[in-house]
Design brief:
The protein has about 110 residues and is an alpha+beta fold. The protein has a single domain, classed as Arc Repressor Mutant, subunit A (Orthogonal Bundle), CATH 1.10.10.10. It has a three-stranded antiparallel beta sheet. A hairpin with a 2-residue loop joins strand 2 and strand 3.
């Protein structure tokens, strides 16, 4: 069965973008980080203790979230504080919703 609606340039671009988002947030530790950041800004020194992971692995997960711009990083002295980038997170959630629930074209 051929699905031409899934082969347009815009649909392919949305598919790639949404797949990257889902891969990023699909990791349990990254979801835990996002859950912690819902309560407000935190430094990595606070985050890694809640994850039962070493600090370097926690920093890796933060880097992956930051790569998609899902979180902000703010440096204050030697510490880096992280928070959710609400604008980008909302964009991805709307994009995913639109991609999954768009009206099929006749």
């Amino acid at each position: 069965m051929d699905l031409p609606a899934c082969k347009t340039k815009s649909t392919t671009a949305a598919l790639i973008k949404n797949a990257a988002f889902l891969r990023t947030v699909g990791d349990e530790n990254r979801l835990r980080i996002l859950c912690l950041l819902q309560e407000g800004e935190r430094c990595v020194c606070e985050i890694w203790q809640h994850l039962d992971l070493p600090q370097n692995l926690t920093s890796h997960h933060l880097s992956v979230l930051k790569e998609l711009n899902l979180i902000h990083a703010r440096k204050d002295g030697l510490k880096v504080f992280y928070s959710i980038n609400q604008k980008v997170m909302t964009h991805y959630l709307h994009s995913l919703t639109h991609f999954l629930w768009r009206t099929p074209q006749a």
